[in-house]
Amino acid sequence: MDTLTAPTGTQAIDRAARILTYVLEGEGRMTVGALSEAANLPKSTTSRLVGALERQGLLRRDLDDGSLQAGPAIDAYARRARLDPDMPNIARDLLESIATVTGETATLSIPTSKGVDQIAQAEGAYLLGSTNWIGRIVPFHASAVGKTFLAFGAATLPPGPLEALTPKTLTVRGDLVRDLEQTRQRGWGISIEEIEPGLVAIGAPVRGPDLRVITGIALAGPSMRITPDRYEQIGELLIRSAAELTVRLSHHHLQEGAA
Questions:
Q1: Using one digit for the tens of pLDDT, what is the confidence trace for 106-122?
Q2: Alpha-carbon distance 54 to 241, whole Å?
Q3: How far is Cα 72 from Cα 177, in angstroms, rounded to an integer?
Q4: pTM of the full structure
Q5: Which helix or strand (DSSP H or E) is residue 67 part of?
Q6: Domains with residue ranges and CATH for the chain
């Protein structure tokens, strides 16, 4: 017999929904023990339900104190709800300008529960190294703009091992933490052959009207063209473009509110 059929299945769903509601609406952080008491459920049952919610990205556990909070799937949904649907159009000429100045492909990306999702792109002048990034999901830890999402609080790393896309992907969390600190200090992130061999990407975060990071602008191309002597220049270009996009999004938000 299928254990998820009614009434057992309905009861399990109700319990899981109740636990999720307690975490999302609670004023303070809750542990499994506190949830067990609040929901009037055995601790073993609560633990199993929390585990299922964690696996689906609806909850995540703080590694320091074990408390529970909204998971990456809920965070991503909340960010998407704040996104301006006109954002790709608002950013289009900025992406095209970056591609024209540098000759490389420029993209606009958003954080999702699964990684970085590219939602707009402007092609560079070169055929070599040109890639269609639209709809391609890239892990945060391997992506230049993904690192800015991690560094500035727009995304969190999932638990477990970090996937190695290439031999140069940062898979040791301590190494990644140091990389993210450098990203915060510079204001832009970099991925050197961490997604694909020979590919270099640089990205900068874009803040929304409420000044929280909601999207990011990146540039990618082959390492033979994006050389170390160009990193800072490109990074600063992306920071300026990101600031301009923030101004545009804020202005558009005000216009929409007045309409």
A1: 999 999 878 999 989 99
A2: 37
A3: 19
A4: 0.70
A5: none
A6: 8-70 (1.10.10.10), 79-258 (3.30.450.40)
